[in-house]
Specification:
Elements: E1 6-10, H1 19-34, E2 38-41, H2 47-58, E3 63-68, H3 69-73, E4 83-87, H4 90-97, E5 103-106, H5 111-125, E6 133-136, H6 143-154, E7 166-169, H7 175-180
Parallel strand pairs: 1-2, 1-5, 2-3, 3-4, 5-6, 6-7
Helix pairs in contact: 1-2
Bound molecules: adenosine monophosphate.
Amino acid sequence: MHSIKRVCVYCASSAQVDRAYFDATERLATAFVDNQIDVVYGGGGIGLMGQLADTVLEKGGRITGIMPNFMREVEWAHKKVTDFVFTASMHERKQKFLEEVDGLVALAGGTGTLEELFEAITLKRLGLFTKPIIILNTRDYYAPLKEMLDRGIAENFMAPVHRSIWTFVDEPEQVIDALQNAPVWSEDAIRFATLR
Ligand code: AMP
């Protein structure tokens, strides 16, 4: 069982998504605070990012924002989050998301969330990141993504073993258990990263 103390969350910046996504974000943030798990996120003040930070702060939890300087300059940083790391670039930010965390969770999101999630999956496939990756499938939003990943395996772009890289769950209350019980992944993954 993995010990989970600090988790990185990827999620949408959009404020115009269905209420169900905000509810799921709020429930996940509450579960983290109740279990004394610290949160790392993109530092935004609106959308699901804003909801995540608002809830963690409201419930007395700890949250760190990691944001590139140019986003701070256009005042995208959450006003009430006090713990911030500002980076020179988007690349540096993505790298920092993965440092010193025990796992990561992708909530529903757009290209930003997908990009961050896919970089983490790719690094894990190469053995450069080994922590649990959980995808919260609220409203079955990620059904096409699940299908795409399965298709990649069915068509030998990946091996069946790669399915252990990620875990899909439907409810926010399942996330911590999924993080704790995710299959162990090793740095040796480079040995079976590709199909020959
Ligand atoms: P998306 O899932 O496309 O909404 O992307 C989320 C990601 O978009 C974040 O990690 C940021 O890279 C970026 N982003 C877009 N808008 C904002 C915002 N208002 N505040 C913070 N980050 C944002």
